[in-house]
Amino acid sequence: QVQLVESGGGLVQAGGSLRLSCAYSGRIYSINAMGWYRQAPEKQRELVALITNGVTTKYADSVKGRFTISRDNANNTVYLQMNSLKPEDTAVYYCNVRNWYGTNYWGKGTLVTVSS
User: Fold this and answer.
1) pLDDT the model gives residue 53
2) Rounded to whole angstroms, how far apart are CA atoms 28 and 26?
């Protein structure tokens, strides 16, 4: 059974940094991409950052230049380094792994709260 476990969320002041980690266990065949999404209260879930097998990255415009996604294939882990955090970054952050067959695997989420 596949499990994705996020860690690293918490409370931080505006301008601060956090590093999220997501490790998955179990077998996921033909991974296409790993990424981070977030959902703020009363808003839809949105893509934050994505990294493909070819290490191509994609970022939401709102986080470009502040967030960096990376992956450690040997340890089945994806990271999100978040710098210069803003109150509008406050959300539950979800890890996602997607395969070539269109199957999406999700973590349960980790809360990031940025105080002003």
Assistant:
1) 81
2) 7
